[in-house]
Design a protein that fits this description.
Layout: E1 6-10, H1 14-24, E2 30-34, H2 37-47, E3 51-55, H3 63-72, E4 81-85, H4 90-99, E5 103-106, H5 111-142, H6 152-169, E6 172-180, H7 183-190, H8 192-209, E7 215-220, E8 223-230, H9 233-249, E9 252-254, E10 257-259, E11 263-270, H10 277-293, E12 299-301, H11 304-320, E13 329-338, E14 344-355, E15 359-361, H12 363-373, H13 376-396, E16 403-407, H14 410-414, H15 418-429, E17 436-441, H16 442-451, H17 453-469, E18 472-478, H18 485-490, E19 495-498, H19 500-504, H20 510-525, E20 529-532, H21 538-546, E21 551-552, H22 563-572
Parallel strand pairs: 1-2, 1-3, 3-4, 4-5, 11-12, 14-16, 16-17, 17-18, 18-19, 19-20, 20-21
Antiparallel strand pairs: 6-8, 6-11, 7-8, 9-10, 13-14, 13-21, 14-15
The protein binds ligand C2E and magnesium ion (2 copies).
Length: about 575
């Protein structure tokens, strides 16, 4: 507080300037004078005074304009301005308020009044500066000055909050301890200046690569921590840890030096590896030392089970990359039966991975990995082509043509080439588009609805184009998402597939019965065909028949079956009819 307040006195008249100097001489302020508006702005910008005493009537730039310009400048917008107007000049005061003045005085000055006003305003301003300094101190206590990342202090605080929340929500938390490999060598050989730049670059790469909402902190030297909430630790780490390592190992150009550095990562997981921040950090560091001895540029979980799971997933991912060239994929087909006639009116193509050692692997175990790695694009194209070709082949042998349904995943649907691929496939296989149906989940259509508005239009456009071609659209697993009915109404759809979780207990659980009944009624009011999935017994079938559901699919009729069985099935029921044995 010993620092003197600076007051910038702006007045073109020398007498006025003297008067102010005389009146405030014993008050201990530093007085600075400006004779024109231009000079006032220039001095304000360089000195950042505590207060400006501003005369309105000046030749050239007057006080109003000075005030307006101050307010337009972010650095000076908050500078307290006392405007000096002629006595009782109401109009000038109104204009002054508009221009952004904080207070008014009139000439000739009253000594006591001038001192009192200036004292109040400078005191307020000093107080504000003190608060800002305090904020600055808080910042310094919580952030690392080199990289701007949270430091240990803030990390511990955030960990406490996050762990508290995770325990209430029964969520997991991943703690990744990251350490650069051989950073000391960079410091020793290229100097500390480059070393600091490497740290800043690593900080910004980690921040970009870390999932949204994660905390990236720097503890000391080349030690970083990433903390993220998670539902599935192994999956999230398998996705992210490798990406972090990859993004760090990209070459950096620093002061004309190309620097390549790698990192090692150790991971602990809440709650299995510890419930407190300090324990989780300690265990992440233990895992980190193991990653270092494993040969660096790699990651390790604290527990052996997690390492085994991550490894299994990694192996699966690598094998999945080769499924197409190794011919390990197959499609099985599951018939869909029209209840009024007993006819087979369609079939769903379901993907099977025939693993040389593990046998058949169900899509639930690999579709997500295929989605996350982008492999779903070539795999999805293979599925589409194979299903269309097979359906056409069946038609060519003289069997009554029926429609084939192909599942399309989120990433496939968003792929810019989707329409082109479908057109090309239909053309190449010569399948009439009328015999193709695409199954999309509610979430695929709703996701974009929630995030960006303009994407909704593009979803509708894609669906419209498919419909124009003659391709059918079904909503799969209906009832599990949160579709808005208003939104569904706007979409060009043909079929609604009730999720099998509702059908399972439809005869014993009143809620499931009510939901199923409502979905059927709703679909009909939207003029959509309804398919019930997962029909396994006579009771379910009878219930659905009674509620007016037109098509059923499930083990009651047939599980998904390979081509030879499906061929037999189609031949047996050609024209395909199924005898319905209800009641
Ligand atoms: P989905 O599209 O809902 O497929 C229906 C699933 O229910 C299939 O599981 C089918 O075998 C099973 N199912 C059929 N009838 C019954 C029944 O009566 N009882 C029971 N308990 N289950 C029945 P599957 O083949 O394991 O496929 C699982 C999911 O994987 C599919 O669910 C679909 O979302 C996805 N999927 C399958 N093939 C593909 C594909 O080619 N591409 C994409 N993107 N996803 C696929
Ligand atoms: Mg499906
Ligand atoms: Mg389904």
């Amino acid at each position: 507080m010993s620092e003197k307040s600076i007051i910038l006195v702006v007045d073109d008249e020398i007498v006025s300037r003297y008067t102010v100097e005389a009146l405030l001489s014993s008050e201990g302020y530093t007085l600075v004078f400006a004779e024109t508006g231009e000079e006032a702005i220039e001095k304000a910008a360089t000195l950042i005074p505590d207060l400006m005493l501003l005369d309105v009537m000046m030749p050239g730039m007057d006080g109003f304009e000075v005030c307006q310009r101050l307010r337009a400048n972010p650095r000076l917008a908050e500078l307290p301005v006392v405007m000096v107007t002629a006595l009782d000049d109401r109009d000038s005061r109104l204009r002054g308020i508009e221009a952004g003045a904080d207070d008014f005085m009139s000439k000739p000055f009253d000594r006591a009044e001038l001192r009192a006003r200036i004292r109040t305003i400078t005191r307020l301003n000093r107080y504000r500066r003190l608060v800002e300094t305090e904020e600055q101190l808080v910042y310094l206590a919580n952030y690392d000055t080199l990289t701007g990342l949270p430091n240990r202090n803030l990390l511990m605080e955030r960990m406490r909050q996050t762990l508290g929340r995770a325990s209430r929500n029964r969520q997991g938390v991943n703690v990744l301890a990251i350490d650069l490999d051989g950073f000391q060598m960079i410091n020793d050989s290229l100097g500390h200046e480059i070393g600091d730049k490497v740290l800043c670059e690593v900080a910004s790469r980690l921040t970009q690569a870390a999932p949204i909402g994660a905390t990236v902190a720097r503890l000391s030297g080349d030690e970083f921590i990433i903390m993220e909430e998670t539902n599935d630790p192994v999956k999230d780490i398998s996705d992210n840890a490798q990406r972090l390592l990859d993004c760090i190992s990209q070459p950096m150009m620093l002061n004309h030096h190309e620097v390549v550095i790698t990192a090692s990562v150790g991971i602990s997981v809440y709650p299995s590896d510890g419930e407190e921040a300090t324990i989780l950090l300690k265990n992440a560091n233990t895992a980190l030392s193991r990653a270092k001895t494993q040969g660096k540029n790699t990651y390790q979980f604290y527990t052996a089970e997690m390492n085994a799971m991550a490894l299994k997933r990694l192996i699966l991912e690598n094998q999945l990359r080769k499924v197409i060239e190794r011919n390990e994929l197959q499609l099985h087909y599951q018939p869909q039966i029209e209840l009024t006639t007993g006819r087979i009116i369609g079939m769903e193509a379901l993907l099977r991975w025939y693993h040389p050692e593990r046998g058949y692997i169900s899509p639930d175990q690999f579709i997500t990995i295929a989605e996350e790695t982008g492999l779903i694009i070539p795999i999805g194209e293979w599925v589409l082509r194979t299903a269309c070709q097979q359906t056409k082949d069946w038609q060519n042998t003289g069997l009554t043509p029926i429609r084939v349904s192909v599942n399309v995943s989120s990433r496939q649907f968003q792929h810019p080439n989707l329409l082109h691929t479908i057109k090309q496939t239909l053309q190449d296989t010569q399948l009439n588009p009328h015999y193709l149906e695409l199954e999309l989940t509610e979430s695929i259509l709703m996701e974009e609805n929630r995030t960006h508005k303009d994407k909704v239009i593009s979803n509708i456009n894609i669906l419209n184009e498919l419909q124009t071609m003659g391709v059918h659209i079904a909503i799969d697993d209906f009832g599990t998402g949160y579709s808005s009915l208003n939104y569904l109404k706007r979409l060009p759809l043909n079929t609604l597939k009730i999720d099998r979780s509702f059908i399972q207990d439809v005869c014993t659980n009143r809620d499931d019965a009510a939901i199923t009944t409502a979905i059927i009624a709703m679909a009909h009011s939207l003029q959509l065909t309804v398919i019930a999935e997962g029909v396994e017994n006579n009771e379910q079938l009878a219930f659905l028949q009674q509620k007016g559901c037109e098509i059923c699919q499930g083990y009651f009729f047939s599980p998904p079956i390979p081509i030879p069985e499906m061929t037999q099935f189609l031949e047996k029921f050609n024209p395909p009819t199924f005898s319905l044995l209800t009641h």
